[in-house]
User: What shape does this take?
Amino acid sequence: MEEMLIQVKVPVHKQLIMYKEKIYLLLFCFFSFIACKQPELLISDKGAGNIMINESLKSTYDDNIIDIKTDANKLVVSIILSSSKFKTKEGLGVGSEMTTIKEVYQENVVENDINMSKGSMNIGDIGDVLIVENISFIDNNNDGIVDLVWVVKKEDF
Assistant: This one.
């Protein structure tokens, strides 16, 4: 038995449509993958990524960009982030402008200065902190840019 090969010519415009559909599918898969990875880098008032306040550590972390303090029961009480990879759902974190944080959170922001003192004498202002819920955005050199993000239980302030 002889095999017959049948060739079908597809018009160019249909080839382009099929090509576009493949590109759209590829882009959809790519962005879906990125969206699925985002929670690992999300800052919330409950924690950062998969590290949560009042819970034990469930995974390893890079101590060059995250500083974690635990209590006697080994529960997380404080997370300090120095990486711009971590962001709030509004896209704010290390590297954000302090004015943008004030604009985004408006009346929910508590603003404080970071002062250096000796005893009861104030020596100088070394930075600012904007507090939203359990998240503190810290500018430790007065340049108007967030240098650290600190997630901590309110009662630990």
User: Anything to note?
Assistant: The two ends are 85 Å apart (CA to CA).
